[in-house]
């Protein structure tokens, strides 16, 4: 088992990539702390891990809100004594060119996608620093490095997460804490299904358009990203520090 007894907190793990990662980590021996805004989805992920013979507990918390994140982190520490891995996965989309989106949407996407990395990290890091050990995985996106129509605010947040990852790595390397970023391409999750359904008259044609802009003829699956997260969570990636890890089918669009 590649994560035996590691205590791992995954934000936004009630759905999509986070859920798939939580299920995989459960089979690899981790004690999985499932977090999500949705209690229904979070409880379901935790129950599915336990049903498969793993160990999991669900905590409801909004990743942007210190008043709910701090008690979650303190609760995990009280139960398990440590957090070995923090996967800052929770995120939301925002569609529209800048002149089309309202300031409220800008603030919401920036808040969840960037502040939602800062807040859990702020409360987990002191415990990792004390133990001089830890791995933090931040969810960026390949969109951090390329242009894609009508995704400006989302792209800006994912660029910020990549930049934050590098700064965090410098600050916490002296404490033997690794901080790396995942950069997925298009991964078929409820998040993307919703984006395709609400943004395109013909979602099937849109998927084919996305496929034509990558080297692989497949659209990515949540499991593809979960396997990359497993590598970053495990000690197998001990020489990776502040690195972007691409899981994007060879995206070439610009
Ligand atoms: P998803 O919508 O399936 O899952 C996201 C989960 O996060 C949901 O369960 C949601 O309830 C939860 N969440 C949202 N806001 C929250 C908050 N404030 N506090 C706690 N939980 C919250 O999405 P997904 O596709 O699995 O995306 C997961 C991450 O991967 C996101 O950060 C997304 O930006 C990133 N990503 C996705 C893709 C893709 O193509 N799906 C590509 C690159 C990056």
Element layout with pairings:
Blueprint: E1 7-10, H1 16-27, E2 31-36, H2 39-51, E3 55-60, H3 66-80, E4 85-88, H4 103-131, E5 134-139, H5 152-172, E6 177-184, H6 190-199, H7 203-212, H8 222-233, E7 244-247
Parallel strand pairs: 1-2, 1-4, 2-3, 4-5, 5-6, 6-7
Bound molecules: nicotinamide-adenine-dinucleotide.
Nicotinamide-adenine-dinucleotide binds at residues 11-12, 14-18, 36-38, 41, 62-64, 89-92, 112, 116, 139, 141, 184, 186-187, 189-192.
Please give a structural write-up.
- The chain is of the alpha/beta class.
- It has helices spanning 16-27, 39-51, 66-80, 103-131, 152-172, 190-199, 203-212, 222-233, and strands at residues 7-10, 31-36, 55-60, 85-88, 134-139, 177-184, 244-247.
- Strands 3-2-1-4-5-6-7 form a 7-stranded parallel sheet, sandwiched between helices.
- β2, α2 (39-51) and β3 form a beta-alpha-beta unit.
- The termini are far apart.
- The structure holds nicotinamide-adenine-dinucleotide.
